[in-house]
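Students often ask why we bother predicting the structure of a whole assembly rather than each chain alone. The short answer is interfaces. A chain on its own may look different once its partners are present, and contacts between molecules only exist in the joint model. In this exercise we take two input lines together and write out one structure for the complete complex. Read the inputs first and try to guess which parts will touch.
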Amino acid sequence: MVMTDNELLEKLFEPARQMTVEDNGFSDRVMERIPRRSTRTLSRLWTIFCVAVAGALFVVFDGLQVVVRGLVMLLKMQPSRDSLLMLAVSVGVIWLLAFIELTSRVTNRERIRLV
Amino acid sequence: MGRLNDISLATQVAVFHNRRAFDQLVREYQSPVRRFFLSQTMGNEALSDDLAQDTFLKAYTHIAQYRGTSSFLTWLTRIAYNVWYDYTRKMKNEKSEEINENVGTTNVEAAHSSFQIPNSSLRQDLYTALKQLKDEERTCITLQLIDGYDIAEIARITQMKEGTVKSHLSRGKEKLANYLRQNGYDR
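Now the answer. The structure tokens for the assembled complex follow.
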């Protein structure tokens, strides 16, 4: 009897469908490579510490007063063409860096292709 | 493992970095992920395990992106496909043709300590037959005939259009059937 294409493929693939791969320590090897949480915790603690120190310094040295005084001075003075150019360059660089960071994050996210 | 349980475990990993929850997911899904790579590498167990490890590491670091709209296994398979795609592209760039020879011939017989497939000669026949196919055809064929995905799911996993998947499947099946007939499997 001549077998159809589907019967032939069924004969070939049926055993593979039933196939299971034994763990044999694979899961343990994966878990060994998983990044430890302690590093994240340490990094978070460091961030919290830095923010706390910055906040304390801001209060101790009356940071709000300094910021307000600076803004008032900036608004009162007549900006020159050079200072405007410097401002534009600084803002441009910051936007460029933000754009690069954003596109790299989007690309990275795209590579994982959400389901 | 049910979809809800998977979502619960994935949430525990994403929010609390619960390693035990991720360990459960790895143990549950290591077999289908490694089987996927064994099909793509045509039996190279060492390479399959390396790629499967990379897949789980990526899954761990991006687990917050799993939304539960598909099964966790489909999501993992999609990552696995991307890992395989990146690997083949990298290898093609490095040594243009070598991959097909290395991947296919080295370990069909050598490395199968973890394998639980009923008939070893059929396993060998399967990998020899899969060598007749192009990468994309092999991926589509194995996703359908071994892993049981339908055309829409294969399209989602591989990011191909459904029409493209259909034509890969049709061409691949034709090549396989011809190969099997030429080698007397139809008797």
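Check your guess against this: Chain A has two domains: 24-77, 79-115.
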